[in-house]
Design goal:
This protein is of the alpha/beta class. The protein is built from 13 helices and 10 strands. It has a single domain, classed as Bacterial extracellular solute-binding protein, family 7 (D-Maltodextrin-Binding Protein, domain 2, 3-Layer(aba) Sandwich). It is 47% helix and 21% strand. Helix 2 runs antiparallel to helix 11.
Length: 335
């Protein structure tokens, strides 16, 4: 028995490696069925854009490729879903650029505080070459396919304690995602980060595990955080992006024609996502006011920008080998 046991262990390890390396997609009656994960609720702007992408992919491949959507952390929290894409156990996922930054630091420039000037600047970056160039490096360094940049929105703060400046926010705890860069979002507004999963943030705020949270207006509304916070501070501190990525096993299973359809439709869906956000942000501000939130407009965003500049300097130094500063400059200076 003692001689057999090591052999069994080896066989089990080999079997588990085979499972991990296997593609996640299924083939049903000649149709490839992919799974995509995202953390947002059904009917949210992100969910709408993912459904648009799935519709375009199915149409563009004559029904040979279908995408099944798993919203609301059904396939795991953001970090786990992205890890699944890297391992090949999940076909596709939408995750904050801050999570991708943990795999390849320059991806974080898309989620860095006060990087985008206005809607026009953002659209030029979206339609420009930067994401494709970064995607090629991510494919080489990490082994996943980057397909699109989906704007989640301009992040604001919802809080149970009012503040106008970073000094006012000193000592406040702000719910953030678990990634390193996302935690800087809290520090930029003068507070301290508390990591709480997205779907657990409502209860975390209600129970006082955090004083505040930060999210785009659409996200605050969709997640009903207005029910558990009183004040809305319009800091606009991050233009938050979700990156659409795909397992290389899944990507390599497609014909060149199918790959072309998948890439082009991802960009179409990304533009659609931007248009939804532009249309909804003003409406959601009014909705949140109607729901009883007190809106605070800081007299100046410069104190917040000053903190971001200090963090930027530290990132340029820490990630010099990845040319982080050069990538950030390219995004900032896009015209």
């Amino acid at each position: 028995m003692r001689k057999i046991l090591p052999k069994l262990i080896v066989l089990l390890l080999i079997f588990s490696l085979v499972i991990v390396s296997a593609s996640a997609f299924e083939v049903k009656n000649g149709v490839k069925v992919l799974k995509i994960a995202h953390v947002n609720p059904v009917g949210s702007p992100t969910d709408m854009a993912v459904n648009k992408w799935a519709e375009l992919v199915e149409k563009g491949t004559d029904g040979k490729v279908k995408i099944e959507i798993f919203p609301n952390e059904q396939l795991g929290i953001e970090k786990a879903a992205l890890e699944g894409v890297v391992l090949g156990t999940i076909d596709c996922s939408l995750n904050d650029a801050a999570y991708h930054a943990s795999l390849y630091s320059p991806m974080g420039v898309m989620d860095f505080p006060y990087t985008f000037r206005d809607w026009d600047h953002y659209r030029k970056v979206l339609n420009g070459p930067i994401l494709n160039e970064l995607g090629d490096l991510v494919e080489k360094e990490v082994g996943i396919k980057i397909l699109g940049l989906f704007l989640f929105g301009r992040r604001m703060v919802c809080s149970n304690v009012p503040f106008f400046t970073p000094q006012d926010a000193k000592g406040l705890s702000v719910r953030t995602p678990t990634s390193k860069l996302a935690m800087e979002n809290a520090r930029v507004v003068g507070a301290e980060p508390v990591s709480i999963a997205y779907t657990e943030a409502y209860m975390g705020l209600k129970q006082g595990l955090a004083d505040a949270a930060e999210n785009p207006l659409t996200g605050i509304y969709d997640m009903k955080w207005d029910e558990v916070t009183k004040y809305l501070i319009l800091t606009e501190h991050v233009w938050n992006n979700e990156i659409l990525s795909m397992s290389m096993d899944t990507w390599n299973s497609f014909t060149p024609e199918q790959q072309k359809v998948i890439s082009e439709t991802a960009q179409t869906a990304a533009v659609y996502r931007l248009d939804i956000q532009i249309e909804l942000e003003d409406q959601r501000l009014e909705d949140l006011k109607q729901n009883g939130m007190h809106v605070i407009i800081p007299s100046s965003l410069q104190p917040f920008r000053d903190i971001a500049a200090k963090i930027e300097k530290s990132y340029i130094e820490e990630y010099e080998k990845d040319n982080w500063g050069d990538w950030h400059d390219r995004v900032v200076n896009t015209k």
